[in-house]
Amino acid sequence: MSISKNVGKILVGGVAAVALSGVGSAYAGGAGEDLYSVTTGASTWSIEPNSSMALKDTVEDGDAVYSLYDKRYNTGLRLNNSSGVGNTVYTTGDYANYISKVTACVNLNNTPDRCGQDDRPGDGH
Predict the structure, then answer these.
(1) Residues 36-85: tens digit of each pLDDT
(2) In what order do the strands lie in the sheet with 36-39?
(3) How far is the C-alpha of 1 from the C-alpha of 26, rounded, in Å?
(4) Which residues pair with 40 in a beta bridge?
């Protein structure tokens, strides 16, 4: 058997293994698009390829910030950051259960919290 036939079999086998493992499906669902949400005092963004996310307090006002976010298999999650201005916190990475929505918010006392716009893959934001 020639070398080129062996290389072809290896490539086909590798593609089949990726397809069966579900790794490629994460990208098909929009996981490759960067997500970002901002409001006065907070910003949150996904870390490529949306396996994790970050949340930063951007204004020295004494208010804690948080991000409401969804993952591929979990919804209604919240990441808190009460570390103060300039500090960033992160979620743990998970390529299969990728970030699918982010919303930056500021925790305001005695008034409704201020939140930025949701960002989801394919929504044009």
Answers:
(1) 999 999 999 999 789 999 999 999 999 999 999 999 999 999 999 999 99
(2) 36-39, 42-47, 52-57, 88-90
(3) 36
(4) none
Listed in order, strand segments (DSSP E) in the chain are 36-39, 42-47, 52-57, 65-71, 77-81, 88-90, 99-106, 114-115
Q: Is the dihedral of CA 79, 40, 48, 31 positive or negative?
A: positive
CA distance 91 to 69: 11
pTM of the model: 0.74
Question: Reduced to 3 states, what is the DSSP secondary structure of residue 67?
Answer: strand
Q: In terms of DSSP H, where are the helices of 2-93?
A: 3-21, 23-26
What the block records as the tokens of 62 is 């004494």
Residue type, 32: G
**How far lies 58's CA from each of 66, 79, 82, 110, in Å?**
12, 15, 12, 21
